[in-house]
Amino acid sequence: MKESFQKRKVLMVCLGNICRSPLAEGVMIKLLKDKNLLDRFEVDSAGTIGAHMGELPDHRSRKVAVNNGFELTHLARQFTRKDFEIFDDILVMDDSNYDDVISLAKKPEHEKKVKRIVEFDQRSDAPQQVMDPYYGNINHFEAIYDQLQHCIYGYLVQNLG
Ligand code: 4NP
Q1: Pocket of ligand 1 (CB under 6 A)
Q2: Architecture of domain 13-160 in CATH?
Q3: 48, 60, 61, 120: most buried by Cβ count inside 10 Å?
Q4: What is the pTM of this model?
Q5: Do 64 and 89 form a contact (C-beta atoms < 8 A)?
Q6: Residues 91-138: tens digit of each pLDDT
Q7: Which secondary-structure segment (H or E) carries 9?
């Protein structure tokens, strides 16, 4: 008999849902595909503001993705309270995202789902936030891609059991 298991549902959250969180979503899907583990997780992303709703990711995030062998096709959406019910882990990029998401939580079990993605970066000198690259250049996006790989690898090590 085929073993059945529940997919772990992960939501990546940043401010606009066009730079960091769709890239984090893409990095995680790419890592899972490469390890043949895509059936174990469901991955999505959202922003704390709705200013970019319906837009494709920023061209710089898409360029970094293509340079590394994958495409970003997510359309931006705003985080809502319903996401607390749907997702097991809500991984935020910076302190301001953390405060914004926590301020919407109405139950302790929802608050517990909200984690800073950097807490999974196992490097001793790991940065404390994934900084907003919106006003930066392509090098900032490359650096964020690199940082996200470390964070998501650590997250998977901790959650694959
Ligand atoms: P993100 O970056 O939160 O990583 O998607 C930003 C995107 C848009 C804006 C700020 C940051 N904005 O001010 O519109």
Answers
A1: 14-20, 47, 51, 132, 134
A2: 3-Layer(aba) Sandwich (3.40)
A3: 61
A4: 0.97
A5: no
A6: 999 999 999 999 999 999 999 999 999 999 999 999 999 999 999 999
A7: strand 8-14
